[in-house]
Amino acid sequence: MRRPPLLFIVPLLALGLSGCDPSAKGFSLPPGDIAQGEQVFKDMQCLSCHTMEGYERPEGDWELSVALGGQVKSLKTYGELVTSVINPSHRLAKVTDMSTIQVDGKSVMPVYNNLMTVSELIDLVTFLESKYELEPYEPTVYDLHH
Question: Binning pLDDT at 50, 70 and 90, where does residue 53 land?
Fold first, then answer.
């Protein structure tokens, strides 16, 4: 029996093993600490522009109010949360008045890449990830007619 050449098998095998998102292949950060991530959240003054259940915003006249955490229809992946922190313009939040969160298509969120250590990023994302909860699925009930 003649075997197919490796030239054809290797790409097919790579596609099958890599899943649908090749950009995430091989991406893994070490485990973070939720308590330390909460401290980073406070130290970086995230509540100046974000709201989160259970946290008081500092006094001030805040134009921005982008909610983080809570019940959602689909959970944010770890990679999406990391991307949101290190590249805030990648995908903008959906808010009523987009002019409050972007200027010329770029997020008004500061880029913290030179202010935050990798350990702080890992802990912050671990903290944020713990604040999201999947909404219970409510199936549609259909009446059966004979």
Answer: very high
Query: Which has more confidence, 49 or 37?
Result: 37
Query: For residues 131 and 115, what is the distance between their CA atoms, to the nearest angstrom?
Result: 23
Amino acid at residue number 92: L
Measured between alpha carbons, how far is residue 24 from residues 20, 27, 31, 127 in Å?
9, 5, 17, 21
Q: Could you give phi then psi for residue 71, rounded to 5 degrees?
A: -80, 135
Q: What is the pTM of this model?
A: 0.72
Is pLDDT larger for residue 145 or for residue 46? 46
Q: Give dist(CA 131, CA 50) in Å, integer.
A: 13
Q: State the helix-helix crossing angle for 118-130 and 34-43, rounded to 10 degrees.
A: 100
Residues whose CB falls within 8 Å of the CB of residue 144, separated by 6 or more in sequence, listed in order = none
